[in-house]
Design goal:
CATH topology: Thiol Ester Dehydrase, Chain A
Strand content: 25-35%
Order of helices and strands: EHEEEEEH
Largest sheet: 6 strands, antiparallel
Distance between the termini: 12 Å
Amino acid sequence: MARHIYRCPLRWSDMDAFGHVNNVVFLRYLEEARIDFMFRLQPGDGSPSFSGGSVVARHEIDYVRPLVHRHEPVIVESWVTRISAASLTIAYEVKDAEDSPQVYVRASTVVVPYNLEAGRPRRISAEEKEYLSAYLPGADDEGALVA
């Protein structure tokens, strides 16, 4: 299974009065990683995938340990845990490095593709499903599901 890696810089303004990254700021980190992940398939290659927009239907976050400001970015690893006809679930870990056991946050987001022109949710396209499938547990690095 592939994981998308996003290096997220910490900003001094991310800190709260207790000297660690505020809980709400972690939602911004997840958003930055999610947008970077989902729009990798988009234009450049002419693909219309994910260009119509998407909405967040649900967030779930477990705060494992406090994160304090530093100059090195944190790593946000993202992968897909579920794909249905009209939604997907993305899981995340915010940690020190790709191979680090030090995790600050574990989270998941339910995302619904959205047709901005029609003003309503839409189905996941075959191209989007193929792209996302490579990030499902049980998929090899080429996106094929392995037993």
